[in-house]
Amino acid sequence: MNAPIRRLSVLVLILFGSLLLSSTYIQFVQASSLRDKPNNRRTLLENYSRQRGPILVKGKAVARSVPTHDDLKYVRQYTDPLLYAHLTGYYSFVYGAGTDIERSENDLLSGSSDQLFYRRVVDVLTGREPQGASVELTVDPAAQKAAADGLGDQRGAVVALDPRTGAILAMVSNPTYDPNTLSSHDLAKVQASYKRLLGDNDDPLVNRSINALYPPGSTFKVVTAAAALSSGKYTESSELPGPASLDLPQTSVNLNNDDGRPCGPGDKVALTRALEISCNTAFASLGLQLGGQALVDQAAKFGFGDRIGVPMPVSPSVVPEGMNKPQTAQAAIGQYDVRATPLQMAMVAAGVANDGLVMSPYSVKTVRSPDLDVIDQAKPQELSRAVTPEVADQLTRMMEQVVESGTGTRAQIPGIKVAGKTGTAQHAKGEPPHAWFICFAPADDPQVAVAVVVEDGGKAGNEAFGGRVAAPIAKSVMEAVLR
Q: ω into residue 241 within 30 of 0, thus cis?
């Protein structure tokens, strides 16, 4: 055999070997990931041949599969779709398990999870129709409705947590959408609806409660106060500079109070009073004294920067590293490049409420097989120690003053102590500020922690303040839980 033929033979062997290796890799190594792709049409057809498990809230199905008379045996139906859209997500023949619980718990809902293996074997042997598992959420329907009603047609989000466990009691994002328009078996209508939703400038498909990052404004002053108290150099009564305008180092731009006035006589103000009236210059001065790294470290203890799932993935909140002094002063009042999700700010309030211990948030309470056997039960887990119980007590007293006689009086509930903090966050030149409120109640026996953000001040526009716009919404959610 001459040299050219030998080389050609070697090349052919290499090609056949590569083909064998690649096909083996695809069929065995990649098989699982390819099968689990949300838009895998073959997997979708297989899944539609069996009944997908329901998503439940207090025993009521907010998402369920019902029989049809077409080639696809079942269609997904959503009850109260606008209320629960950003919890359930959608399940579509065209786009698969698109978002939220439908996607994050897809293997359980579809019945393909390894945890349901023996159930599938029994189904095959007995000829029983296969089904997926049911997923029950932690949501309190009264709190969920109060949050949605409070927001109305305003853009924004509300999150309520049980501070003792981390259970999500309410999660509302607005604008919302109807997942039934994406679960239909009418291909043209589904595609048209999806295109319309994607093209909507208000981004109704975005879950603002866990995936939108906002400047938290003055609600971040709770984090700054936590850093100060935890340093051991400050107490609730420590005096801070509180002039009408603070001369920032390294820049000719000053930082001013909203009302253009000093926060106390002689340009001095106690830390508790500074939080009560939300004094910008006092907290900016405090940030300069503490330094940027102290703010970064304290925020991290509340969960900033963590990549968590509830089980839906949550966008990490951020306090930037390496800030100069003017940036640090702005960050101390929740501006500059500080960004947080509403869930994160609810975790700040919940951490203070829970004696300084931040619990991992979660939205799935129980997963059951079609036979109602418990497959998985939520177990509360500690995420981090944000502050000591002593510091948490100090912060609680300070936040109570905000609601009793400060900027958050509209969150007062007769007969119940409420601890809270307002925020009015500048985010774009010429645009109205975002209105924020974080809180928990009862302050002496916390059962619910809430964060509310209303984009661009909602209906109040440029006249918006957190205490005026967001606090009443938070109040209604707290009342719904406490009732």
A: no
> Is residue 244 helix, strand or coil?
coil
What separation in angstroms does the CA of 321 have from each of 219, 306, 328, 370?
20, 15, 10, 49
- 218 in active site: yes
Provide CB contacts within 8 A for 343, sequence distance 6+: 159, 171, 209, 210, 310, 314, 361, 451
pLDDT at 103: 95
Q: Is the pLDDT of residue 8 over 90?
A: no
Q: How far apart are CA 430 and CA 29, in angstroms?
A: 54
Q: Could you give the C-alpha distances from 6 to 2, 3, 11, in angstroms and in order?
A: 6, 5, 9
Going by C-alpha positions, the residue among 414, 418, 465, 453 that lies closest to residue 277 is: 465
Instruction: Spot the catalytic one: 92, 173, 209, 218.
Output: 218
Q: What is the DSSP string of 304-353?
A: TT---BSSSB-PPPB--SS--HHHHHHHHTT-TT-BB-HHHHHHHHHHHH
Average pLDDT of the chain, as a whole number: 90
pLDDT in tens, 180-234: 999 998 899 999 999 999 999 999 999 999 999 999 999 999 999 999 999 999 9
Say how many residues make up the chain. 483
Is pTM beyond 0.85? Reply is yes
Radius of gyration, alpha carbons of the chain: 26
> Per the structure block, which two tokens stand in for 73?
């045996």
Nearest to 39 by CA among 190, 181, 180: 190
Place of tokens 């509209």: 410
Distances (CA, A) of 225 to 196, 228, 333: 45, 5, 10
Q: What is the pLDDT of residues 385-441, one digit of tens each?
A: 999 999 999 999 999 999 999 999 999 999 999 999 999 988 888 889 999 999 999
Residue type for position 358: V
Domains and CATH numbers, the chain: 214-360+382-482 (3.40.710.10)
**348's tokens:** 């700040």
Strand 268-270 to strand 239-241: parallel, antiparallel, or no bridges (unpaired)?
A: antiparallel
Contacts of 446 (CB under 8 A, 6+ apart): 163, 164, 350, 353, 354, 440
Q: Is the pLDDT of residue 472 over 60?
A: yes
Q: What is the mean pLDDT of residues 240-244?
A: 95
